Amino acid sequence: MTGHADMVLLNGRVLTVDDAFTVASALAVTGDRITAVGSDDEVRALAGPSTTVVDLDGRTVLPGINDAHLHLAMFGLAGPPFSADLNGVASLADLRAALADGPPGPGGSRWLIGEGWREANIAEFDASDPGPHRSLIDEVTGDRPTVLHHASRHSVLVNTAALRIAGITRDTPDPAGGHIVRDRDGEPSGLLLEGAKGLVTPFVPAHSERERLDAIESAMRTLNALGITSVTDPIVWPELLRDYTTLRRQGRMTVRVNALLHWDWPSPASSSERLETALGYAGLSAGLGDDWLRVGGLKLFADGVPTQCTAWLHEPYPAGGHGSLITSGDDDEARYEELLRSIELGHRHRLQVQVHVTGDRAADAAADGLVRALKEDPWPDARHALIHGTLLNEDGFARLAEHDISVITSSLMKSHSGASMTRAIGADRWARAFPAGALLAAGVHVADSSDAPVTFPDWLRGIATFTGSAPGPFADVPADLRLTREQAVRLWTTAGAYLEHAEDRKGTLTPGSLADLVVLDGDPVTADGDALQRIKPVFTVVGGRVVHTGGTSG
To answer: Membrane-crossing residues (predicted)?
Structure first.
């Protein structure tokens, strides 16, 4: 290298997360790349009169955190000033208070939007059969149409006014891939599962472009403050792709976005016929874009979620039933074939396919489709993936490894969803959910994620959970499924880069890599369990530019 570096960081613990997990004390950045990693003396020699010199004072440097499954735009719009924040609401009284003070709807409309309720947190919801009823919120919402998104984003509770506007009555049939829950009198209860959400959401006014762009930009800043520099947004519909493109063109991105395309949101279901039409006109394939905004692939949904009993299981739920695939079709066989056709379409168009699966039977079905597509039309570098893998058939791990089918786990759900999940599927099955340790031992590529806004993207809490320092009840991971600290760090750095086909430029602190990094006030590899979750980011750099600082010495 010739010339001087733009920035040098000295006197710290630089965790390169390379193959050997090398630890250095200093690194240099020139432009948007890391140009040297080594000892203080080696790197100090690269400083010139205009070089920014940062004394780390023993702090730890990690590659920028890569959240492999985070809904960036949804995260930006979740909560004030755009919606009522229902995360953590622990009683019906608190819920009604939050709704009474709810903000204006999109574009200043009368609609009231809430985000993040969990039935297990609200006794009156949990006791309702068959699920929470609109009458529980009608009293406070009145004639103001209201849509309350479940924390999983796989269902909504709407009030009577919203049902009336949408024209949903006792005679309205269930849509493909969805279910209108009905009360004992046969009337719609207000709870709409999976694709049935789409019966109401088209009536909600849209946010303005300015609102959307500002919300995304604000969300990026929040992520930067956590040390997050890259995300895969797993549901990017056409309008959202345009918004990301606008932000990229305006130079407003501070988080790199790997986009998974989905044409039918807010319905999770996409018919193979619609998908074939969309792909035929789109002319897209994985890798289109640049290091800030890239088309990563295609998102498909196989099933729903265990808390709504819409995940497809081999063994029945404690309350009965197995759930089902949410693809179109009159029976399990037809829905299975529809899923496989959709997978084949994405694969044939050379789009990496990531499939939402939470039930073990759904995961096996998705794996069937991915393996069939790979055998019939070989694409050695496809790197398809199963998203969540909440409940997996351990006998199938070898097949996933053989065909390089990755699993994107959700460690943070262990502590956020435990009460609901334990009630829905039983403590034994929940204990072995997200089996990252067993997957890695079998040779399966695993990346971890927050699924924000389903959970807050506290990746350090995720590391603590998967390594055995579980925060809160229902979050303990059995010993044979736990990770080492180094493994857990890789799940938030190099693993996401691998899934993006970007391991040559992201995920490690090595010369030639993009200068994406976070400086922490503690070491996540050596800190004890309690201290691990108290570590704070000090500053974050993306592409050589400081995008967050909490105060440094230099």
So the answer is: none
Could you say which of 181, 203, 225 is where a domain stops? 203
Residue 529 burial (CB count, 10 A): 12
Alpha helices in 153-237 (DSSP H): 160-166, 209-225
Give the count of domains, the chain.
Answer: 2
pLDDT tens-digit readout, 84-134: 999 888 899 999 999 998 899 888 889 999 998 888 788 887 666 677 999
- Predicted TM-score of the model (pTM): 0.93
CATH classification at residue 88: 3.10.310.70
Whether residues 138 and 45 fall in one domain: no
Q: Which residues on adjacent β-strands are paired with residue 292?
A: none
Pair type for strands 228-236 and 65-67: parallel
For residue 27, the surrounding DSSP H or E stretch is: strand 26-30
CATH code of residue 32: 2.30.40.10
**Across the strands, what pairs with 260?**
297
Alpha-carbon distance of 444 to 454, in angstroms, equals 25
**Rounded distance, CA 390 to CA 528, Å?**
27
**What secondary structure, in 3-state letters, does 94-109 show?**
HHHHHHHCCCCCHHHC
Q: Which domain holds residue 183?
A: 83-203
